[in-house]
Every structure is written in structure tokens, then in C-alpha cells.
Amino acid sequence: MSETAHDTRKPVCLVLGAGAGIGGNTAKRFAAGGYHSVLARRADEEGLARMVAEIEDAGGVATGVLINAVEDGTIEELVERIERDIGPIEVCLFNLGAQIGNRNFFDIPHKTFELGWRITSYALFRLAQATLPAMVERGHGTLLVTSATSAMRGNAGQHSHAAAIGGRRMLCQTLNAEFASQGIHVAHVVVDGPVDAPDTLGKLLGDRYEGFKASKGEDGVLDPAALAETYWHLAHQHRSCWSFEVDVRPWTDTPWWNDNPQTVINTSAAKPGFGKT
Predict the structure, then answer these.
(1) Nearest 5°: phi and psi at 140?
(2) Average pLDDT, stretch 65-94?
């Protein structure tokens, strides 16, 4: 369709990394809001079909696609096909992760370290190159990027993940600096805590998954459906007050400097004028 300004098809929300957690729930939220959600993931065709069916049963429109985002041309071909056959991509959620767990520095093979970069940073670069030209031509569009604690702080055992996610954050900053003035909203979302996702955290913890969630208490693990509301809000912010970076964490999260109960201020005992000199 040559005249994209008169495109009457549903706007598309493309989710790259549409698992059962953040990606799938975000796809559901945007489909409920009138978008055609395209869910793309690497494996589990049965799980993908189940998520598409759930969206359609709820009255939404969705398409599921299996792709290996690391392979050259896969992201680019998908974007071209969506724009041609489905509709204009108004929102992209880049939700690919490359968490390999805590690893001793000397136990990380070169190929594993490089693969983390290819999935986490290079694939985002390719997605942006594929989607931004049409968004710029239309004068609007949103690129949402899921990030993690490692983008802000590199911890022991997180060498591969921190390097890849840190690079992702800097790439988002450069994209925002270049394209915000052209109508493109880039938002980097730091997910600073565990997400209740059976095919990511669930696989990482295995038999310990349910016990881990129970140990965190009620709402102590990030609810991906609730997080999807944050993505929805970001995609519909007025451009006079765009957020570039947002961080989210459970309400019970305790920063490391408050881990020792003796250092916690008992605010309930505070009196009027407390802290004044």
C-alpha cells in the first residue's frame, strides 16, 4: 500500500519475544485495545497457537509467527511481510532476553557471550533498522524495549547478560536522541525483579519455581499482565511528556542498603518536625 497515511487496516503491535510472560500479556493487552497483535517467538508452536486463540476468543485479532531472530534476514522479512499483508506497525515491543543464569567468568564460552549480544543488542538494532523508516514516514510510532537490572548494575556471575543488556540500554538512548524529534517514542523499561513467567523464570528455576513465588508473598513477583498496562500507557503517552526510561519492581522489594533491619527507619514513630534542625 503506497499511501500509508490512508491505510485503513488495524494498527499492528509487533511483539518480538512473545512468551507466556511479558510478551504474550502485552500482545493480549494491545489486541484488547484495538491493535492487530503479531506474536513472534523462536519455539513452542503449540504455546504460540494457544496465546493467539486466547486473544481471538476474547474478540481480538492476532497472528503468531515462529522465527529465529538471530538468523540474518528473519526480522527484516517479518517486518516487510507485516507492513505488506497485515497492517502498519505502530508499536513494537522488543522482548528478547539472553539470561543464562549466574556463571563463573571462566566458564562462559566465547560463542555464548557473543550469542547474548546477538540476541539482546544486535537483534534490536536490526528491528529498529527494519521498522523505523516506515514509522518516520508516517510521523509516529513507538518502540518499547524490555530491559533488566543488569542494564543498570553489573553483578558477579552476570558478565554476558550485563554486557549485552547494557549495550541495549545505550542503543535505546541513541535511538531516542535521533528519532524522538521525528515522532518516534522510544521507551526503555527496566524490569528490576523476577517476573511470573513459566517459560522464562519457570524454566530457570525448575522445581523451585512455585516455592520461590510463595516465598515472595502476595504480589511479590512481577505480574506480567499488570506490566502490560505499563507498556500500554507508554505507547499512548502525549508527546509533550514522553518517558524514555521507566523502572518497575514489586512493592515488597527491598534495596540492598535496607537489607539489615537495624538500618530501616521506623517511619511510624516519626513525629511532626522529624528531621528538622
Answers:
(1) -165, 160
(2) 97
DSSP result, 181-234: GGTEEEEEEEE-S-B--TTTHHHHHGGGHHHHHHHH-TT-SB-HHHHHHHHHHH
The DSSP result for 37-93, as a single string, is EEEEESS-HHHHHHHHHHHHHTT-EEEEEE--TTSTTHHHHHHHHHHHHT--EEEEE
Q: DSSP state, 122?
A: I
Q: At which residue does the C-alpha cell 532476553 appear?
A: 97
Distances (CA, A) of 272 to 264, 267, 276: 19, 11, 9
For the chain, helix, strand, coil in percent to 5 are 50, 15, 35
Domain 8-269 sits in which CATH superfamily? NAD(P)-binding Rossmann-like Domain (3.40.50.720)
Q: How much is the pTM? A: 0.87
Q: What is the pLDDT of residues 151-208, one digit of tens each?
A: 888 888 788 888 889 889 999 999 999 999 999 999 999 998 888 887 777 777 888 8
Grid cell, residue 49, equals 497457537
In the chain, where are the structural domains located? 8-269
Relative orientation angle of helices 22-32 and 224-235, to the nearest 10 degrees: 50
* Nearest of 123, 142, 144, 119 to residue 25 by alpha carbon: 144
